[in-house]
Amino acid sequence: MAYDFDTIARDYDRMNHLMTLGLDRCWRRQAVKGLHGHVLDVACGTGDMVLELTKRGCTVTGVDLSEEMMSIAKTKAPATYILGDAEHLPFPDAAFVAVTCAFGVRNFVHLKKGLGEMLRVLKPGGRMVILELATPDSVIIRPFYDFYAKHTIPLLGKWLAGNRTAYAYLPESIERFPKGEDFMQIIKELGAAVVQHKQTFGVCRMYQITKP
Ligand SMILES: C[S@@+](CC[C@H](N)C(=O)[O-])C[C@H]1O[C@@H](n2cnc3c(N)ncnc32)[C@H](O)[C@@H]1O
User: Fold this and answer.
1) Fewest CB atoms within 10 Å of the CB: 13, 121, 166, 170?
2) Measuring CA to CA, how many Å separate 174 from each of 54, 81, 136, 168, 204?
């Protein structure tokens, strides 16, 4: 079952910026570089990726499962917002020149189905950019990351959002999710080319994907 973001929508932006020490904004800014035209932002949430895309002059369609998350997006960034599921996108084949998804794919119930749908609606030659959180590879950084993810983040969730459980879920879901080569293998099986760029010691991965 999909995680219910409606329950944390009100605190999402504040917690997101705090937990990533504001780096989430830099990661999104990096991800939208070189994108133009009509872009689909999948799992748009509260609209921070939409905002970065519109700043670059893109026309954006945002899609998300959570009405509450998108109600915040609507106050922040001009776009067409559609309540919908990434695993059954309500768009024809090859409808977009680019597709983005920031911190969304980890929440898909059927990852390969969602990724396949995102590639289906992308034009041949088009670019898809996925940002996702991950555990760092470095054995030196790893203990610091583990302490922060397993202790600090759930505490911040409890103090600032009154919801320890929701933020204890975060490091667990990051740990379980395929990263690096494992994630790229899934993309390759779907017939697309992919390059990974590690951000901030690899705690965020940017995957740049090209549809043949
Ligand atoms: C961690 S938030 C990311 C929001 C935003 N992209 C950002 O950069 O902050 C994950 C979002 O994915 C959405 N989501 C999860 N599964 C989805 C699905 N199958 N289809 C559409 N949206 C989905 C959730 O509702 C939530 O808004």
Assistant:
1) 13
2) 28, 27, 11, 11, 10
Where does the pLDDT of residue 2 fall: very low under 50, low under 70, confident under 90, or very high at 90 and above? low
Whether 179 and 93 have beta carbons less than 8 Å apart is answered as: no
- DSSP reduced 3-state for 47: coil
- Which residue among 12, 20, 64, 91 has the greatest number of ligand 1 atoms within 8 angstroms of its CB, and so is best to mutate? 64
Confidence bin at 164 (pLDDT 50/70/90): confident
Closest CA to 108 of 132, 77, 73: 132
CATH classification code of 5-137+179-210: 3.40.50.150
d(CA 120, CA 115): 9
Q: Taking CB atoms and a 6 Å cutoff, what residues make up the pocket around ligand 1?
A: 2, 5, 16, 43-45, 48-49, 63-66, 69, 85-87, 102-104, 107-108, 114
How does pLDDT run across 89-98, given as a tens digit for each residue?
A: 999 999 999 9
Under 8 Å between Cβ of 81 and 62:
yes
Average pLDDT rounded to a whole number, residues 28-42 = 97
**Which pair of tokens denotes residue 11?**
């605190």
